[in-house]
Amino acid sequence: MPARGAEPQGATTEQSASHAVQSMFNEIAPRYDLLNHVLSANIDRLWWWRTARVFRHILRQPEATIVDLCCGTGDMTLALLRHRPKPGAPVLAIDFAHEMLARGQRKFSALGAIAIEADALALPLAEDSADLLTTAFGFRNLANYAAGLQEMYRVLRPGGEVGILDFNEPSGIMGRLYQFYFRRVLPRIGTWISGTAGPYAYLPQSVHRFPAPSEMQAMMSAAGFRHISWTPYTFGIAGLYRAVKP
Predict the structure, then answer these.
(1) CA 114, CA 93: separation in Å to the nearest integer?
(2) Fewest CB atoms within 10 A around its CB: which of 46, 129, 150, 158?
(3) What's the structural domain count of the chain?
(4) What is the pLDDT of residues 188-235, one digit of tens each?
């Protein structure tokens, strides 16, 4: 069975898991961008840009409603904004970690995005109101994956698209090398730079717990999405789930 949702150490309920994730990201917010780029050797930038290009056909529509969920410090939001016409409707950048969102707001507020502090499991958006929903490396941290997909489905307009960019555990030799780096090297570097151990011990655990592509696609289908696909990035280290609300 696919994992129900994120489960940080010590969390026993969905509410405690959500609170733990929120506290964790607020704690690491000051060094989050630096660590992302160092630990991924800047490959993360390519992943965001590549994802945004996939949805250019929607992003180029001035009146389209674009929502970036779990936006963190706004790098996916910035990638989306590169394809938005001016003038055009602003991108709605949503996150429930205040410190992360505050840093993102400083990066994108002058470029055509609006920061909204809210939980991805209870979005302050009307039903059938969004043309595109994206989330980059945030969906994996939701306390309930099925509920997150259902909320995305609720908010999307019929014909609207969803893009979920997140990590994956590849197989083969690359998978073994990746697991060694992710479980042994990355937590040590992350702890050294950030000064806190918890978040970077949680990261590889959260990826290992996250549903495999086939399971994730089955969950998306159960939520009602159609035309579901998964495109691996960089030998399957990450990948983009894409689907349409019929």
Answers:
(1) 6
(2) 158
(3) 1
(4) 776 776 667 666 778 778 888 899 999 999 999 999 999 999 999 998
